[in-house]
Amino acid sequence: DTGVSQDPRHKITKRGQNVTFRCDPISEHNRLYWYRQTLGQGPEFLTYFQNEAQLEKSRLLSDRFSAERPKGSFSTLEIQRTEQGDSAMYLCASSPPSTANTEAFFGQGTRLTVV
Amino acid sequence: AQSVTQLDSQVPVFEEAPVELRCNYSSSVSVYLFWYVQYPNQGLQLLLKYLSGSTLVESINGFEAEFNKSQTSFHLRKPSVHISDTAEYFCAVARRGSNYKLTFGKGTLLTVNP
Question: Which residues are CB-neighbours of B114 under 8 A, at least 6 positions away?
């Protein structure tokens, strides 16, 4: 499978617990993005990696959120002390090194429900 | 900063009818424009994009969109829809020369009825 892979697909957690999501981008894609999509809204940008460097973070990414991309391959998104407002679909996307026709390829997402 | 407005949250149409999904954007800099489609329980898939050149772009499944710089619009059209086109459609922009960070609209749910 050569697409963007996200794990888990679904996560139910109790308020206050920590959760971690994983994203495996398409091989050779050096750019990786995390987005959050809530019900009735379009995806909102969270953060961007180029290789292992986190180059941009949205103000949506509070102190409880942390993302990493060790060695420039897979990425993890951790949410500490989850709140009900964190319930959303978390989408990962990757794209190849900048070319004239770069596009972002999305994974199927991880749906988080905080109860 | 960029913003995207999709004027219709839901568009119901009958099969084989034409459809237009409207998208307007706001940006102080030049942008790339995209339409993504999301089928139920699936991720986003790129439908078509405008980077440069001809302002009319087409997808392989019959959709087309036209970039109108003066009206800052990028409306999506299809002359005859199928039931399988039922999905949520998102318009998005990215600042030219940027890291391709996308700013999305809220989406339009297209429902094609028999």
Answer: B14, B15, B83
